[in-house]
TrEMBL record:
Keywords annotated in UniProt: Signal
Presence of the UniProt keyword Signal in the record: yes
Origin species: uncultured Dysgonomonas sp
Designated name of the protein: SH3b domain-containing protein
Highest taxon above the source species: Bacteria
Signal sequence, renumbered to the chain: 1-19
Amino acid sequence: MRKSLFLFIMFFCVQIVYSQQLAVVMDKDGRVNVRNKDKQVVDTLPSGEVVCCFEEKDSWVSLYYTTKEGENQWKYYIHKSRLMSLSCLEKIPLTFNSEDKAILQKDSIVITLVQKDFIPQQNKISKENGFVYKINDRKFWGTDGDIPRTEYKSIKISLEKQNVEIPEAAFDDLYEPTLGYTRANYDRVNDILYLHSMNSDGAGGYIVVWVIKKGEYKKRYVYYDF
């Protein structure tokens, strides 16, 4: 996916879910059925899970979601009434953006992301048929078999009187950050911050979402191959 495609990604606070929109699963019973194209139940998701949505037809939304085993599943469906777009939540705007640093800020919430050059000599690069398939013995995101040029250095969040630092393990396999495309939405009622970005070097595009609940880092989602 080329970087220019990112310019066309927009989020709308409406019931209809548009292409590649992030949404939170919400249901009063605590779980939502996931169905196949024949509307048969194939899985369930707990309320609070973040999914990546695509087309909506006849009130059913096709989506990517993450299984209990951490794998991505796609081309499954959830009824749109069980999804809430992240764009419906309070936006924390991008207030500063440079080549290696971005800041999102609103009132007492300050999010600072810093990137650095990727140095191949300081990392274990595994190749197969001339393509990189692992870095430091881990699957990675951000390039389509090439050596990355940049990586995250740190992600720090100031939430009123709480300071939160996203652990390195939550971003050290994510490469080619596009800091200017970082977005954040805050659920003040439940005290949940969703920090998300679309990253790529022009290929190997992916979406990452970090979830911070009540001042603690909770979970990460990575969606790719869309």
